[in-house]
Amino acid sequence: MALTDPSRRLQAMPPYMFAELEKKIADKRAAGIDVISLGIGDPDHPTYPHVVEAMQRAVADRGNQNYPSNRGREEFREAFSDFYRNRFGVDIDPEDEVIPAIGAKECIYNLCFAFLDPGDVALASDPGYPVYTGGPILAGAEAVLLPLKEELGFAPDLDAIDQGTAERARLLFLNYPNNPSGAIVPDGLFEKVVDFARENEILVVHDNAYSETTYDGYVAPSFLATPGAKEVGVEVFSLSKGYNMTGWRVGAILGNAEAISTYWRLKTNVDSGLFEAIQLAAVAALDGPSGPLEEMNAIYARRRDLVVDTLRAIGVDVESPKGTIYVWAPVPEGYTSTSFCEKVLEEAAVVISPGSMYGRSGEGYFRISLTTPDERLSEALERMREHLAQA
Ligand SMILES: *Cc1c(COP(=O)(O)O)cnc(C)c1O
Question: In terms of CATH, what superfamily is 8-46+291-388?
């Protein structure tokens, strides 16, 4: 082993497939070409003013400047308990059924270390958020992909999981509204998941990053509203996308008290909790008016319609999503995810994400993010319409 060789666990991570695409983007920009990116899902609008103001007050308060506790401030746990009751009809005991997370990514990653040993399996939605596979691999365990079937409304086929895999599985990662497919939870799926988890003794981790970002009157449920869900699972709630707070790093884990306690035990060895000023800003976000959220959703819905109309006009057969900040569409005949995205970059100087970036089952699709300012998005779509008319 050489001095700087990465650990075997890190070497086991899949290679970063899009280095080449990124290099092409960098080369184009260096050559003075105006590349517009519709790739990344990071809100372009600012955090809501009442949240920023709460943070400004909290950061100046001497009482918030020491080590936080990993259990979180009482106000934080109470605010989540109230929010889950009012918004989802779910009872959360603020004493032991919720603690802060330093974003959903931290939480999902650390859950892998809290629950997985070598030989164990985590079942990971595919396509899905990359940490569902990266977390298990780094924890020395195995990620088994659960293909989300378009014909099932982007649900996994739980009956197709073989007995041996189900026996080794300790975690199951799900996410609705879903990144990248934009799908909402199909009817009856959460109920089936609870039965499956009970039968096979698997902890369900529902990644709830998008419940507040929905359109056309659709209201997304919490997994925890499913009967029996709290016995078999936890939900990871993130404020990143809905509240324009990606940079703040704040979320929470809610649900099964023993699972949360195990996660807490792991975290006491890893980090020192979430900055209390940020906890208080999160309280302001959850307690605050819903107006700003509704305005954001109206902006995304308008952009979504623009994207869907343009794609249909160039012959792409796309569904209009009811949630998330993404449009997920099949690539035209004769292309792979990567070759189509390369063509769009070459000809229109627009960056879109190859579906294969989100797992094997993402091959054959591409993703467009709705977080680009209106004029730039319009410009990008105009270019796509012009250059890809007969793609
Ligand atoms: C953006 C995103 C996250 C990241 O959430 P953070 O709270 O910012 O870490 C997690 N899961 C999904 C599905 C996402 O799209």
Answer: Aspartate Aminotransferase, domain 1 (3.90.1150.10)
